[in-house]
Amino acid sequence: MQAEEVKQIIERELEGCTVHTTGEGCDFQVTVVGERFAGLSPVKKQQLVYSCLTDLIASGAIHAVSIKTYTPEQWAALQ
Fold this sequence. Notes:
By secondary structure, the protein is of the alpha+beta class. The chain has one domain: GMP Synthetase, Chain A, domain 3, CATH 3.30.300. It has helices at residues 3-13, 42-59, 72-78; strands at 18-24, 27-33, 64-70. The protein has a three-stranded mixed β-sheet.
């Protein structure tokens, strides 16, 4: 599995979000930026992204994933 494939899956599932991925094989780092994270708890944000990858994690295609989530305003403040 490639980082670009993971990116495309998350972008398809979480419309309107921008996804940045790094990693290869079965270990990935994912940063997702979207308005849909506004007002959600950190756990809910993680669950939302994990839900996009459930089948890949269950099959072993993805073994480890590190997730960071931001609203567009939070992301802009970091830049």
